Amino acid sequence: MAGKARIVAARVYPKPGRLQDVIDVYAGFVPLVHKEPGCELFALHTDGETVFLVEKWATPADLQGHADGLYPQIRAGVSDLVDRAPDVWIGDGLPFGEAAKGTIA
Fold first, then answer.
1. Phi, psi values for residue 53, rounded to 5°
2. pTM of the predicted model, to two decimals?
3. Which of 54, 45, 6 is nearest to 23 (CA)?
């Protein structure tokens, strides 16, 4: 698996009334995460109640570097603002169909 990009999707559950606070914490880290080695995508989304993150890391080692680097700081920043631990999925893309539409590139 060495050298394969890793895709991360996560859903964060803010406490009632704390959605914007959680977004603000993540937004403050975005420029720093974007500068981390191997960060190809770190994007925030919301459905009005939760925050979704979509990430792409060039290699598993780059994702591990994020997990050992900024991720603990981000988690600490939102720890009092969330109801529970985030749901996190980590996987490899399965490119089907058109190249630009069939995978996170």
1. -115, 140
2. 0.88
3. 45
